[in-house]
Amino acid sequence: MKLSAYILSAALIMVAIGCSPKNSTVKLYDLRCENLTEPVGIGTDQPAFSWKIASSVNGIGQKAFQLLVASRPELLNEEQADLWNSGKKESASQVLVRYEGKETGSGSACYWKVRIWDQKNSVSDWSETAHFTIGLLSKKDWKGSYIGFADKSKEALSPQLHKTFTISGKGDMVVLHVNSLGYHEVYLNGTKVGDKVLTPAVSQYSKRSQAITYDITGMVSEGRNDIVIWLGRGWYSKGLPGVVSDRPLVMAQAEMLKEGRWSTVVRTDSTWSGRNSGYSTEGTWSPGEFGGEKVTASLLLPDLSSQSIDAAIWNKVLVVPDPGYEVTPQSTESNAIRDEIRASGVTKFRDGPWLVDMGKTLTGWVEIKFPQLKPGQKIKLEYSDHFEKDSTLKDQGQYDIYIASGKSGESFKNKFNYHGFRYILISNLNAAPLAGDIKGYLIHTDYHLASSFECSDPELNSIHNMIFYTLRCLSLGGDLVDCPQIERLGYGGDGNASTLTAQTMFDLEPLYTNWLRAWADCIRDDGGMPHTAPNPYPAGGGPFWCGFIITASWKTYVNYGDIRILQKYYPVMQKWLGYAEKYSPNGLLEPWPDTDYRAWYLGDWAVPEGTDQTDKSSVSTVNNCFISICYSTMEKIAGLLGKGEDAAVYRTKKEKLDNLITGKLYDPVKGVYGSGSQIDLTYPLLAVIVPDSLKDKIKKNLINGIEVTHSGHFACGLVGIPVFTEWAVTEKEANLFCSMLKKNDYPGYLYMLDNGATTTWEHWNGARSRIHNCYNGIGSWFYQAVGGIRPDWQYPGYSNFIIDPQIPAGITWAKITKETPYGTIEVKWKIEKTNFIMEVSVPAGSVARLAVQPGKKNLTIDSKKIRSPKMFEKLTSGKHTVSWDI
Q1: Is 837 exposed, middle or buried (CB count within 10 Å of its CB: 0-12, 13-18, 19+)?
Q2: Whole-structure pTM over 0.90, yes or no?
Q3: What pLDDT is recorded for position 343?
């Protein structure tokens, strides 16, 4: 028999007995549950599963899948999977596939794996086994009490709470559920549990607190075990909403799984003991007064081993009533140390203290080894991100205090507070510390870095890298803050300014799940929204801030594909829009009053000198254009949710509002909207408000204002930068945008870099904060314009995306990667003489649409000349080479 006939015969036999031929070129990887890798303690018993497909063959896609879920790894096979065997399901879905198995419930431990069939019905090998556990989903599942350290100190102590417990006969799994009000770390038998720091993530304490679950199976021992939960105040500070105690508290319990049943092995109650750890929190935890930590070294234990615990003096704990919050399993990754930065130098500062320069700004901790100190010697470390004009260090209310024990080898390291800084001023230290003995630790939420950019222009690379690094410095705590050193608030305006960029650069779906929940928790009964979430105290902003619940929910859906976000928060969006409409008596939104939870009524913010952001016509234009965007977004959301009548209502509302904006805010004599500023002309164009008859005129006036009035510079701020960036991408104004980026004088990004910036500033002139989220909205341009990678909202999660690179003058090559729920998109292009050559990698399971503009000559895709190109040419999964004449 010929070989080909033999293969065909074998395939027919396999089909006849219900088998499929193996596809050895396909591998499944990056298995996730609820968009998390191997999560412990998720907040749902109906999770969603995702996986990615790797193949060396072009055109591979999924036709069907089979997913197994079991309560023990040895049951994870087709015959024994006791929770779910999906069978062969004809479906291309590989992102957020919903669990359809047996009811599980709080505390369940689950194992899963998946395999797929491709278009030729060839089956892959099974994936590696993945694992997840479910957290405690109901308050009734908690058996412990809230406890704290019963001290009389007026200091904000960071106490250690301890319990010795015994285990006889180890089970299959042991997990520890921790619900701390304030930060916590857990130590078991002398070893820290996990690598989480400054955990849990932020929440609105007047509504909910968050629980973390740890798998401690490999850390418990038969017989004696010592657990220490070390607490710090953090946002659980007296006077803030929902805070009912003047000390951090914790409720916790450890559960053992044995013979299919869970039992509690230890829980927090009055039998625990506590001590002053030697750490305490400094500052009021309010704007400009975040302080730091004080360490009294004589109180520190050498370690948390059984011997050290037995030698220490412990006191009774305080048991407090349940404060009544919802307790929710944390939905995002915790904070972690993500980089280590060595000090670049130590110098004497003005014949006084020692000045440490870390070489770059960072958010996080410092660790320093001291020269020999005397008992009781008090060292003060002051932190700042820049110097004043008179060469004094900017006072930003950040400091730590170390009171020495006098022992040799003393060192300091933060634990329950952090700083945003570049410089450290160390007082009362007789000898200079060695630069090599000083480390900075960059801390942020432990998400995946999901992109890269490089091109032939070093200045563009530097700007991109500054934006990329800044956002890493701003994402500590399960949200994006305005700045880490002065306010630490999750402003909606700053969030709206950077969401498109941040979600392009990083894998932030879990972070936004956490943050959006805080926004929903903050809405008031009348539909009013604050300017920050969580909302510990009043903060400034305007509609662009409050409407974050709409725009960020939408972008999260478009970038990651989880429609549950829209389903969950659609009523909240509607409620807030109803509030805005109450302050639109004649159809146009007008200023609403300040409240006890928010202040101001802004349009644009943090604009350069010479632009009037307070102009009433500008404020009205900006805010009504934003509402128009909200209406068009709500129309899409309502349509996706099957609410056709709602969609029609929002479409009509947008049409009416757009007509009013042009009728009331357009000046036909000057040919401008509002004040004629950059944002006042750009926003109506982006929001598709401008009538066709006026578009050319408005665009001409916009560009003339940029080139003539502002000498080619940006003349907008926090709101205007992302609006202008999105407009420039849409209109393919790559040359204009690139020329604005490359201005070296004020105001501009190169001006920041030329003046020593490593992170972006709060104001174009560098005032107040130099680690800030005002101007990071340009970051999406590097990917969507230069890289040409653009999502399509009709195919969320990049299941179907556009490749349409815009080539700024003078740029000769670019390399861009973008991680998506389906895998990595890679675009590499270069110009060789009169040829444009591009290599594109499309993830398996997704499709790229190559935009073909009129006039492209000699278009070739994978060595095949396209004689009659369509508007979009389809690129299937795999690697492709594209070229055309320029």
Answers
A1: middle
A2: yes
A3: 98
